[in-house]
């Protein structure tokens, strides 16, 4: 199983959804970094479950314990290891259905890949629970990037068919910078937010779920970061975004809509201002030839609906090899998008830090 990512800095995640703990080891951090633990804790709380009716009732505080690599308020240069205890598992919820393949889950593929030895409780190592240590690592990366003036922010672009336009590709910079400088996060139109919440709650009442899109932006990256072909900015960030459970699509700039444009519409024309070369539009999302051009990197991430729903579904019983049905029990998010926002930012931060250090 590939639980390690990175070259300049290596990240190794461990644990299962219903195991004793989860965590991450970060190897390659320079010594002497002054980490703001309160800010990291705040990032962890953004992702944590059990806060309202829109999320799973599983109540995990996601409090991290630093095991090594941090002393007297600074990194030591040795591997930074953190552990997050699992304290609110209901493993018995999975005993009744352990031989039933849950539709759209990794039960079948995991069973085949690991010859039936995979931990099926709550998805085991495939679970979104493993994104908690990724948020920790991303929070560390964001603090290092902020020292270089690089800022990352994101918001919910859509829930189902309800969309909100927050980021203007060109005029994003000033507003987002001011918000993040004050440790605030992008807020959406109140009317749209209420519609999104209502849509999620309607799905929950009907024992169903819904997906959506998270839109992100990376500001103040200088031109010249990244390289073709396999270390392009898009491929590096995408590899991490697609590692987030439930992500089914990633696009940069105008994304798939650019295929509907003429070249004269899609091309970002250049101009110079105060000695800096910029573009009038940002259809390419701040990236040309896999390399940053100095404009904001704008990207979107599509999340599928939570596969765990209480509606009866058709499936297969693994032991008898017979067709049957399943009603999934347990505590699950009717929509994971709102908790995915800090995870998207974390993944982007980890990828950008790797590129900046290369």
Can you describe what's shown?
- The chain is 27% helix and 23% strand.
- With 358 residues, the chain is α+β, with helices and mostly antiparallel strands.
- The protein has one domain: Chorismate synthase AroC (Chorismate synthase, AroC fold), CATH 3.60.150.
- The strands form six sheets. Strands 1-2-3-7-4 form a five-stranded antiparallel sheet, covered by helices on one side. A five-stranded antiparallel sheet has the order 9-8-10-16-11. The chain has a two-stranded antiparallel ribbon with strand order 5-6.
- A hairpin with a 4-residue loop joins strand 17 and strand 18.
- Helix 1 packs across helix 8 and helix 3 (131-147) packs across helix 8.
- The radius of gyration is 21 Å and the shape is globular.
- The mean pLDDT is 89.
Q: Any idea how many domains?
A: 1
Instruction: Give the spatial strand order of the biggest sheet.
Output: 1-2-3-7-4
Question: What is the CATH class name?
Answer: Alpha Beta
What general form does the structure show? globular
């Amino acid at each position: 199983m590939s639980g390690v990512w990175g070259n300049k800095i290596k990240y190794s995640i461990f644990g299962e959804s219903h195991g004793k703990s989860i965590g991450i080891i970060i190897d390659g951090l320079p010594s002497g970094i002054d980490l703001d633990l309160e800010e990291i804790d705040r990032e962890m709380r953004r992702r944590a479950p059990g806060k309202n009716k829109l999320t799973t009732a599983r109540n995990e505080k996601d409090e991290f314990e630093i095991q090594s690599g941090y002393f007297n308020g600074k990194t030591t240069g040795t591997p930074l290891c953190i552990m997050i205890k699992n304290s609110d598992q209901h493993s018995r919820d999975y005993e009744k259905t352990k031989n039933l393949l849950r539709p759209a889950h990794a039960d079948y593929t995991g069973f085949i890949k690991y010859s039936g030895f995979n931990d099926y409780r709550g998805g085991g190592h495939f679970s979104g629970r493993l994104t908690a240590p990724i948020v920790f690592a991303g929070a560390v990366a964001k603090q290092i990037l902020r020292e270089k003036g690089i800022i990352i922010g994101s918001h919910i672009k859509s829930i189902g068919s309800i969309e909100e336009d927050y980021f203007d590709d060109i005029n994003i910079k000033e507003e987002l910078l001011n918000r993040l400088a004050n440790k605030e996060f992008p807020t959406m139109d109140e009317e749209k937010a209420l519609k999104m919440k209502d849509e999620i709650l309607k799905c929950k009442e009907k024992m169903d779920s819904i997906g959506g899109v998270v839109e992100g932006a990376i500001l103040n990256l200088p031109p010249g970061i990244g390289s073709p072909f396999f270390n392009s900015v898009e491929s590096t960030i995408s590899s991490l975004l697609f590692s987030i459970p439930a992500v089914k699509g990633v696009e940069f700039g105008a994304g798939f809509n650019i295929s509907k444009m003429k070249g004269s519409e899609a091309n970002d024309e250049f101009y110079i201002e105060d000695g800096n070369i910029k573009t009038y539009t940002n259809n390419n999302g701040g990236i040309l030839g896999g390399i940053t051009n100095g404009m904001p990197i704008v990207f979107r991430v599509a999340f599928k609906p939570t596969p765990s729903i209480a509606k009866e579904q058709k499936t297969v019983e693994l032991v008898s090899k017979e067709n049957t049905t399943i009603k999934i029990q347990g505590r699950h998010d009717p929509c994971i998008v709102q908790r995915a926002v800090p995870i998207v930012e974390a993944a982007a931060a980890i990828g950008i830090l790797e590129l900046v250090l290369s």
